[in-house]
């Protein structure tokens, strides 16, 4: 694998990534503020449960410094194959493909001492050069915290959503709050929060003991207006299954039921409209036929429908008069899946993200067709710019 890419190679790679992502129904990155809270365990279980339900699932480990997915699934030591110029992921079951840096290392315990740009290059290669095939779900296990890996995922995978894993202790919840704010800044909608290690069910008497407290995850989710997906108990079977590389086989029935509840709740949260694979409806605020950076005061909106990677419809509509929250709600009501803007206030972003709309800030002034083409190629970078240009609170962005 090479990580030194020229501009041309980068463009070529962006195109391959975009082609792959067009064939992925839902992209979900599993994150945590703190290490060791069970993020890889949750990512693996989500992937196994979804694939057991008949979905085509890809499980990608972007935790290049501490990859654990291969170990949890008993794949450690198995080398990955390359056919032509395509890496073949592990075919764990008929419905589940797995990709981890571990399969490329000569020694599974070899430490990787890589800086940001190399890690970014590897993650892009995992998306561009792996023979994933069409997927209903791409589940991505990211390292703890808010570093290069989740940032690369957010910037490279349009339409990606985050599942945040925490434990009930306040120290973990404090880091969750940072993760939620990170997601808001990089425009990664939060699909929901999971509280792991939430009580221990006594195998003798069946009663629940809240060893690390309980309920903090649900309270945090409610305070931040994000869905609470459910809780998993402390289950020695999780450790047994993980250490033996046997996925879910040793989990207690109670843990399996809770995991199924989490999967069901998550599926309910997902927008029924399919992004990428089937069709997208992309909104762009306009003035004089080009993107208008004043989102709340634009003349019109372009709504561009993209089916199978091609523009199939282009409508222009006039929005209702500007008032707080009105235009974001109106845009979401048009059934749009994505919006490309120059800048947008945090409140407007939150309304759109809550409705499942992906917001990309930092788009330049250009025609809607050109912007959509760049977006589909993965060439528009989300700057997370949260300026609404209303200048209502003495704010002056100074950019115009
Ligand atoms: N619900 C649970 N019950 C018991 N043990 C658990 C549970 N969830 C996770 N563990 C154990 O805790 C340890 C850490 O879990 P895991 O590797 O999934 O965490 P992580 O957040 O991905 O860690 P890292 O920060 O290294 O990426 C593992 O040994 C795992 O088996």
From TrEMBL:
Q: Which InterPro entries match?
A: Di-Nase_FeMo-co_biosynth, DiNase_FeMo-co_biosyn_sf, Mrp-like_CS, Mrp/NBP35_ATP-bd, MTH1175_dom, P-loop_NTPase, YlxH/NBP35
* UniProt superkingdom: Bacteria
Q: Name one GO molecular function term.
A: ATP-dependent FeS chaperone activity
Kindly name one Pfam family recorded for this protein. Answer: Nitro_FeMo-Co
Residues annotated for ATP binding in this entry: 33-40
Instruction: Name the UniProt key words of this record, in alphabetical order.
Output: ATP-binding, Hydrolase, Iron, Iron-sulfur, Metal-binding, Nucleotide-binding
What GO CC annotations are associated with the protein?
Answer: cytosol
Residues in Dinitrogenase iron-molybdenum cofactor biosynthesis domain copies: 288-375
GO biological process annotations for this chain's record?
iron-sulfur cluster assembly
NCBIfam families associated with the record = MrpORP
The free-text function statement in the UniProt record for this protein reads: Binds and transfers iron-sulfur (Fe-S) clusters to target apoproteins. Can hydrolyze ATP.
Family recorded in the similarity comment: Belongs to the Mrp/NBP35 ATP-binding proteins family.
- Subunit field text: Homodimer.
Name the record gives this protein: Iron-sulfur cluster carrier protein
The taxonomy runs:
Bacteria, Bacillati, Bacillota, Negativicutes, Veillonellales
């Amino acid at each position: 694998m090479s990580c030194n890419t020229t501009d041309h190679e980068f463009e070529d790679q962006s195109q391959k990534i975009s082609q792959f992502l067009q064939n992925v129904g839902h992209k979900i990155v599993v994150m945590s503020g703190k290490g060791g809270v069970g993020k890889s365990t949750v990512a693996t279980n989500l992937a196994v449960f979804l694939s057991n339900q008949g979905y085509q699932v890809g499980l990608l480990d972007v935790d290049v410094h501490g990859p654990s997915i291969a170990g949890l699934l008993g794949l450690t030591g198995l080398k990955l194959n390359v056919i032509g110029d395509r890496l073949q992921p592990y075919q764990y079951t008929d419905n589940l493909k797995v990709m981890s840096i571990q399969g490329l290392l000569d020694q599974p315990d070899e430490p990787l001492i890589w800086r940001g740009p190399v890690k970014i290059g590897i993650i892009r290669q995992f998306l561009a050069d792996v023979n994933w095939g069409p997927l209903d779900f791409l589940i991505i296990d990211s390292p703890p915290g808010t570093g290069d890996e989740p940032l690369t995922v957010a910037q490279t995978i349009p339409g990606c959503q985050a599942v945040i894993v925490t434990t009930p202790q306040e120290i973990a919840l404090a880091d969750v709050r940072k993760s939620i704010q990170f997601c808001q800044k990089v425009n990664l909608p939060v699909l929901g929060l999971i509280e792991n290690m939430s009580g221990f069910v006594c195998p003798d008497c069946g009663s629940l003991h809240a060893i690390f407290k309980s309920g903090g995850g649900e309270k945090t989710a409610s305070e931040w207006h994000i869905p609470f997906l459910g809780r998993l108990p402390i289950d020695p079977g999780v450790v047994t299954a993980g250490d033996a590389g046997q996925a879910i086989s040793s989990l207690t029935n109670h843990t399996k039921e809770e995991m199924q509840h989490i999967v069901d709740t998550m599926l309910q949260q997902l927008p029924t409209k399919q992004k990428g694979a089937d069709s997208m409806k992309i909104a762009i605020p306009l003035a004089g036929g080009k993107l208008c950076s004043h989102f709340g005061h634009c003349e019109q909106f372009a709504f561009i429908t993209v089916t199978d990677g091609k523009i199939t419809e282009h409508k222009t509509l006039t929005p209702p008069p500007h008032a707080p929250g009105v235009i974001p709600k109106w845009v979401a009501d048009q059934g749009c899946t994505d919006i490309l803007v120059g800048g947008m206030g945090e409140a407007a972003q939150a309304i759109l993200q809550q409705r499942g709309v992906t917001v990309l800030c930092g788009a330049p002034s250009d025609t809607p067709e050109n912007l959509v083409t760049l977006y589909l190629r993965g060439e528009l970078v989300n700057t997370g710019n949260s300026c609404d240009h209303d200048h209502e609170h003495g704010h002056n962005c100074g950019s115009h």
